[in-house]
């Protein structure tokens, strides 16, 4: 059962007991809308009512607490997506910096760039590398 979200676990256990949402709500002293919210992972019961909920569902409180909440799953997914986005941004910034350096070198060899313009292009490259460093500093502070 630990693979289920809290709401899925409540719904499954309630159904196995042959109870409706209204039946469980009456036993818990809440509305059927509250039970519906629990089962849809929109809310969870207060801590004080977990022992009664566990008893009504025929499991231990530990079993109920082993369930993943939707917010935990979302946080994990959000963290992974953020890491991927950060890595992609870093890659793009490094590529722009490299392109600016190579472009200035090539244009200088061909004598096709004015020094002022070359400095601007190199400045863009340096700014990109500075942003990469800021990203790394932010990552270090989060740890």
Short description:
This protein is mostly helical and 143 residues long. The protein contains seven helices and no strands. Helix 2 (21-28) packs across helix 3 (32-39) and helix 6 (70-109) runs antiparallel to helix 7 (115-142).
Structure overview:
- It is built from 7 helices and no strands.
- With 143 residues, the chain is mainly α.
- Helix 6 (70-109) packs antiparallel against helix 7.
- The model has no long low-confidence stretch (mean pLDDT 87).
- Keywords: DNA-binding, Membrane, Transmembrane, Transmembrane helix.
- The chain crosses the membrane at residues 91-110, 116-135.
- The overall strand count is 0
Taking the sheet with the most strands, its summary is:
none
The level of helicity is over 70%
Order of helices and strands: HHHHHHH
First-residue to last-residue Cα separation: 32 Å
Strand content: under 5%
Average pLDDT, all residues: 87
- Coarse structural class: mainly alpha
Specify Rg, calculated over alpha carbons.
Answer: 28 Å
Shape: rod-shaped
The quaternary state of the protein chains shown equals single chain
Extract low-pLDDT stretches.
none
> What's the tally of helices?
7
Transmembrane segments: 91-110, 116-135
GO molecular function, one term: DNA binding
InterPro entries: Cro/C1-type_HTH, Lambda_DNA-bd_dom_sf
Keywords: DNA-binding, Membrane, Transmembrane, Transmembrane helix
Q: Main traits of this protein?
A:
143 residues, mainly alpha
What order do the helices and strands come in, and which of them pair?
Elements lengths: L5 H11 L4 H8 L3 H8 L10 H8 L3 H5 L4 H40 L5 H28 L1
GO molecular function, one term: DNA binding
Protein name: Helix-turn-helix transcriptional regulator
Keywords: DNA-binding, Membrane, Transmembrane, Transmembrane helix
């Amino acid at each position: 059962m630990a693979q289920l979200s809290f709401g899925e676990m409540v719904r499954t256990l309630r159904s196995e007991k042959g109870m409706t949402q209204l039946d469980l709500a009456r036993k818990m002293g809440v509305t059927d809308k509250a039970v519906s919210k629990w089962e849809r992972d929109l809310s969870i019961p207060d801590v004080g009512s977990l022992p009664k909920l566990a008893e009504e569902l025929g499991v231990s409180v530990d079993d109920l607490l082993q369930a993943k909440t939707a917010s935990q799953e979302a946080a994990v997914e959000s963290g992974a997506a953020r890491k991927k986005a950060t890595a992609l941004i870093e890659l793009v910034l490094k590529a722009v910096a490299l392109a600016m350096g190579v472009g200035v070198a090539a244009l200088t060899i061909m004598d096709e760039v004015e020094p002022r313009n070359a400095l601007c292009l190199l400045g863009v490259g340096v700014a990109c590398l500075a942003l990469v460093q800021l990203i790394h500093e932010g990552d270090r502070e989060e740890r």
